[in-house]
Amino acid sequence: MTCQSPPLRLVRRADFIACSRGRRVNSAAFVLQERRRDDSGAPRFGFTVTKKTGGAVERNRMRRRLREAVRLGAADAARPGSDYVLVLNRAALDRPFETLIVDLTDAIRRAAKAQERSVARSSS
């Protein structure tokens, strides 16, 4: 079994805010926000969990589960030159892990399709 390196992380508040103005894709356990950067660097991921979703232990567990889902499956589906923010909700705790991975890759693909449609509309 090969050990995959963790994907790059968003850490600056300005990047999170810029991503919140991008495309949104809803899922059962999270909302995916995507923003295209002006470079072709590796995709970056950020995680947001509000205090109303639970205590610190639960919020950290949600973050760890999604971070691992990104590492295992979604980092390959992500487009270079994109920033992604996952706004987690309470369902991220109870959802089966394999389902989280499928939801995440599906959300990334839907965000890419939305980007392609908007580019096609603006060019015609």
UniProtKB/TrEMBL annotation:
InterPro entries: Ribosomal_Su5_D2-typ_SF (IPR020568), Ribsml_uS5_D2-typ_fold_subgr (IPR014721), RNase_P (IPR000100). GO terms for cellular component: ribonuclease P complex. GO terms for molecular function: 3'-tRNA processing endoribonuclease activity; ribonuclease P activity; tRNA binding. One of its GO terms (biological process) is tRNA 5'-leader removal. Coiled coil: none annotated. Pfam families: Ribonuclease_P. Belongs to the RnpA family. This is Ribonuclease P protein component. It comes from Phreatobacter aquaticus. The gene is rnpA.
